[in-house]
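hey all, quick one before standup. I had two proteins in the batch that finished overnight and I want to keep them in one place so we stop losing track of which output belongs to which input. First protein below, input sequence then structure tokens straight from the run.
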Amino acid sequence: MAQDTARQEPTAPAAPARALLPLILPALAVGVGAGLMFLLVSGLAEELQGALWQDLPDALGIGRYSVVWMLVVLTATGVLVGLVVWKAPGHAGPDPATLGLSAAPVRPAVLPGLLVAAMLTLAGGPSLGPENPVIMANAALAFWLGRRLLPRMPGALWPVLAEAATIGALFGTPVAAALVISEALAGRPVKGALWDNLFAPLAAGAAGAMTTALVARPTFDLGLPPLGRPHWGDLLAALVIASAAALPGLAAVYVFPYVHRAFSWLGHPLVALPVGGLVLGLLGALGGRLTLFKGLSEVAELARDPDGRPAGQFAAMAVVKLAALLVAASCGFRGGRIFPSVFIGAAFGLTAHALVPAVPPALGVAAGVLGMLMAVTRQGWVSLFTAAVLVSSPTILALLCVASLPAWLLVTGRPQMQLSTDGRAIR
């Protein structure tokens, strides 16, 4: 039987090298362009954030993160984004609640409004990240330019290259892009060997990652004390924390359609977004400034002193941030849900460390992020990779792999935090 199996012809033969070589230059070009787009959007948003939250309140003599200023800035952000969504061509893209990491190309005329709305969202404080709008912009530009400059290339290739390139730029490594693309390919009928299908996206992801690495040198490492030799107690902690973190994530996923429906009932973006901004300002006043923004810089600040806060404070920040993510993703702000979920998972993991000091903070953070991302995205590889890169500790990877199994049993077959165009949760 084994010999017969070994003699079987592969169902999809590998592509010859001459079929892959022409893909290299287009993939590299898309990768560099996507990385520059990410850096441009992030850089402009950071400059605007500094003006809104530092320069302007200092000039007015108002506390930078006072309750009044949070309410003013977040409500005003809702008004500005609402104006863009209302008046810009294409209304700044589709409803962000219906978008994941993959994006169908939109008309180039939609991109100015989309990018302005995304930068206002990133700067103004709503709890969303840059991934979804930047991927959409890069996919649209790659598709539009690619079809005109290289019409013989398959049109469906350009959005895949843009997605891989943007993910590589966001995470600073092409490994994340390869994992996302391979997970997407698992659900599609594909021809050829896996690495043939990953060849061009991996090249694009590498170019995007190198572009951001050379210009901005991003890092996800939180600088937590590395985990030493693991013990049975560490394995138990990883299993419990990852599964426990998935539960509030699942609760938010089930509530998501109802929150989205409530904001949709308001009817007009110039009503829904300011109301959403006001609610986010109230949540920010409740949770503090670390619960604002996309959460990546804030989670690094949170992790600098894992023993500096009581468990109740970590837990409160996790709950507030989760509520802020629900509101921001439902009312129409343009942004993604991965980076805020990282903050929520990390705060949950630090809660576990504060309750049980024997749980290493690195293990608590990684396991919490793993469970939360699995619940929100239902993408195992992305969740596992993101949790692992936050903690520079090779020994933690085996623990996370084991912890991912019960967490996956909790989330598989459940909805994810993404809606179909009719407002129903996507499973």
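OK second protein, same deal, sequence then tokens:
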Amino acid sequence: MGLSAAGMASGLDIAGMTQQLVAAERKPKADRITTQQKQVNVSLSAYGQVKSSVSAMQSMLEKFGKDEAFNGQKATSDNSDYLSIKATAKAKSGVYNINIQQMAQSHKLMGKELFSADPEASLGSGEMVIKVGDKSMTLNISEDNDDLSSVVDAINNADDNPGVTATLINTGEEGGSKIVFSTTETGEKNTIEIDTSAMTGQLASLAYKDGMVDSKVDEMQAAQDAEIMIDNFTTVTSSNNTFEDVIEGVTLDLKKLTGTVSSSESANPETDDIDVKSVKITIESDEKSTKDSLKSFVDSYNSLMGTIDKLTGFDADKDPDDPNRAGALNGDSLTRSVTTQMRNLLNEPIEINGKLYQMSDFGISIQRDGTLELEEDSDKLDDIISENFAVIGQFFAQEDSGFLAKADKLLDSFTDKTDGSLSVKEETLKERQKSLDDDMTELNKRMVAYEDRTYKQFLAMDEAIGQMNNQLSSMMSLMMSFD
């Protein structure tokens, strides 16, 4: 409450006295809450740093797993204008020559007749059945949607569209436009058939089936599979221009045709003049990527240990009053647990093909301070990776029993949003933080009431003193009147 300048009867500074008493009452309680708030905030920030560092390492290890960082295969094409290539860890080293004999194509048809674009023009009615491969749809064309634009929209927007797109081509001829049908997917199985036997009017002219006599629809482009020849011996086809696992673990993405490789009947006259006859692809162990991944792993682990060491450390050489003498989590058992369990995991051998391997077998050594060190001699490290390439990949990426899987499970026990120990600790501190904020709010409310009560008590005292002074003055006056 606001305090007025009372105390006229007693001459006392009632407002000042009230404020001093309130401050004296409030200070020890407020100081205790504020100190606890600071401690909680510091701890919450520190645990946040630890969790962030643990999560960063966990994310890196997960990325290693997805990218097959320790057992990746490197695939190259000597002419990416014709063919690009990707390889997974399943790919085996080798060299192949790929001749691209045929590119996959979608099926395209165009009606011979011109259709009026006049929205009032009636083009026909009835059922139109359009089939692509083994899928089909039936359109019911009536007087409400028998103009050219409505028919095209009905085809393209049908819920059961089997994979066909209708477009209009204005040829410049008088009388309107021609309708073009295209499949959305390539491959010789994705051919279009149009049945208009139940239709009337001009739309009936759009009937089409392979081999149909006197069709009023032209085939602009045949449905076609992609075709390649591997090492001038094995021919393989695909419904699209991507070949997956034709060579195990390898994906080939065709760009354009290579030249004819022979004068056989299968040769394509259109490619006779193309100088590039084949594309050479090479699959080999990606040892550089593995080396970079090992370095990234060591750096990430050491960064995590550095963060924990800073937060849990104690520097006896610093002045006892120096706030930086002890880390925010000095002596914290939970943070020490992260360090201890990670070190135990690093020392744990992993069995591969009946033999036990450790980090040290791959050029990674554990130092006395708990950090990791990667073999500094680059040539020596290259030899280690080259000699143990397959084993390194299994050591890290082996399903369930590999280091990545074990590390992810361990780190998840700290970072899991529901029951991870660091997450649980953070939630506990946040609840404590809220509780202290509530305590401070409640203290402020109590102090307002205490201030009001104290002020009123002083006012009552001042009033009593005033009454006593008045009585004393009256008595003095009465006694003087007797004289």
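Flagging for whoever picks this up: The radius of gyration is 42 Å. Helices lie at 14-67, 148-156, 287-312, 333-347, 378-387, 389-397, 403-415, 421-482.
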